[in-house]
Amino acid sequence: NSGACVYRNASGAYTLRADGSGTNNSFQLSDGGNYAIPYAVTYDDGNGAVPVQPATTLLGRKNANTAAPDCGGNSNGLLSVSVAQADIASVPAGTYSGTLTLTVAPE
User: Fold this and answer.
1) How confident is the model at residue 43 (pLDDT cuts 50, 70, 90)?
2) Could you give the angle at the alpha carbon of 4 between the alpha carbons of 58 and 2, nearest 5°?
3) Cα separation, 92 vs 26, whole angstroms
4) Residue 40: pLDDT over 90
5) Cβ–Cβ contacts within 10 Å for residue 11, how many?
6) What pLDDT score was predicted for residue 33?
7) If DSSP codes are grouped into helix, strand and coil, which group holds residue 72?
8) Could you give the CA distance from residue 71 to residue 6 in angstroms, rounded to a whole number?
9) For the purposes of burial, counting CB atoms within 10 Å of the CB of 3, is it exposed (0-12), middle (13-18) or buried (19 or more)?
10) CA geometry: angle at 22 spanning 19 and 28, to 5°?
């Protein structure tokens, strides 16, 4: 889990898009060779966690901070990444990595 600060200089909803570094922007951790581990992503804007699909924009996110670009040092969103135990067990031990790119925009 990782806290997020979303600031907006006006009231209103925002969108969130997530792109992974796997094929077709999928959420994958790779060993750089033959093996990959899928992972799942959820985002909570304070109204409950919702699943995030690769390369798909979530509309209607709420609770952006409109007072301080750094949210006063607090978080107003929560990003969670999880890997299923079975998926970890299905690949050999090694170092797996990936990139998750988030794009936030006013709606």
Assistant:
1) very high
2) 100
3) 21
4) yes
5) 8
6) 87
7) helix
8) 7
9) exposed
10) 90
What one-letter code names the amino acid at 67? A
59 within 8 A of 52, measured Cβ to Cβ = no
Residue 19 has which token pair?
A: 């792109």
CA atoms of 47 and 60, how far apart (whole Å): 11
Question: 11: which 2 tokens?
Answer: 């009231």
Residue with tokens 């952006």: 64
Place of tokens 């107003």: 76
**What's the half-sphere exposure (Cβ side, CA atoms, 13 Å) at 92?**
6
Helix (H, G, I), strand (E, B) or coil at 69: coil
CA distance 12 to 60: 9
Residue with tokens 């409950």: 48
C-alpha distance from residue 90 to each of 27, 29, 33, 37, 66 (Å)? 17, 13, 15, 9, 45
47-98, pLDDT tens digit by residue?
Answer: 999 999 999 999 999 999 999 999 999 999 999 999 999 999 999 999 999 9
